[in-house]
Design brief:
The structure is a single chain. This protein folds into 2 domains: 54 residues; 116 residues, 60s Ribosomal Protein L30, Chain: A. Helix content is 47%, strand content 12%. It has 5 helices and 4 strands. A 4-stranded mixed sheet has the order 1-4-2-3. Helix 3 packs across helix 4.
C-alpha cells in the first residue's frame, strides 16, 4: 500500500468516525458543502505530504526509484578510469563505450562538468610525463566531444607521474598508474 492510499484510508476513517460520533441533525446545504470542501482540502494535503515524502526517498510519481545514473553501480557511468599502454595516448577499444556513455550523460545534463586528469607511470622525465598525461587527457576529451559533450563541460589537467595509485616498480603497478581519471565536479 503506497503512502497516498494509506493517508486517504486514514482520512476516510477519521471522517467516518467523526460523523458517527455526532448526533443526527439535518445539515444545511451550505454546511454539507463546507464539510465536503474541508474533506477535499484534507485529502489534497495528505496527497501533497505523501508526494513530498516519496520525493524525499527518491521515488518518482510512479513509485519507482529515481536515482542519478552516476550513482548506479551497474551503469557504465560508474567506471571512471581509462588505462593506457606504455608511452601511448591512444584510447584502447574497451574504454570507448564507457566514454561514449559519459559523453551522452554530459550532453543530456548541460550543467554537469568533468575534469579529465591525465597520469603516467614514473618512467620518463618529469616534463615528458606531464606532456604525456596531457596528451592522454586530451585524447579522452576529443572522443567525448565527438560524442556530444560540450567543450565547456570538460577541463583537462595533467599530473604526470606525481599522483601514483600504485607504488611498486612492477609492470602491474606501472599499468595502474597510466590512466586518465574522469572526475565529475560538484553540481550546485
Amino acid at each position: 500500500m503506497n503512502a497516498f492510499t494509506r493517508w486517504a484510508l486514514i482520512l476516510s476513517l477519521t471522517v467516518l468516525v467523526a460523523a458517527c460520533a455526532q448526533p443526527k441533525r439535518d445539515a444545511t446545504e451550505a454546511e454539507q458543502r463546507a464539510a465536503a470542501e474541508a474533506a477535499a482540502a484534507q485529502v489534497a494535503a495528505a496527497q501533497e505530504q505523501a508526494r513530498r515524502e516519496a520525493e524525499a526517498r527518491g521515488l518518482g510519481p510512479d513509485g519507482q526509484l529515481r536515482a542519478d545514473p552516476l550513482d548506479d553501480p551497474e551503469s557504465p557511468l560508474a567506471t571512471r578510469l581509462v588505462y593506457f599502454d606504455f608511452d601511448r595516448d591512444t584510447i584502447l577499444p574497451e574504454f570507448i563505450p564507457m566514454l561514449e556513455a559519459h559523453a551522452r550523460y554530459l550532453s543530456q545534463n548541460g550543467g554537469a562538468r568533468m575534469r579529465l586528469e591525465g597520469h603516467t607511470d614514473e618512467r620518463g622525465t618529469r616534463e615528458y610525463n606531464l606532456a604525456l598525461g596531457e596528451r592522454r587527457a586530451q585524447a579522452v576529451r576529443r572522443l567525448m566531444n565527438l560524442n556530444g559533450a560540450r567543450e565547456d563541460q570538460l577541463d583537462v589537467i595533467s599530473y604526470g607521474e606525481e599522483m601514483p595509485v600504485a607504488f611498486t616498480q612492477t609492470e602491474a603497478s606501472w599499468a595502474r598508474n597510466r590512466r586518465v581519471e574522469l572526475v565529475y565536479e560538484v553540481r550546485r
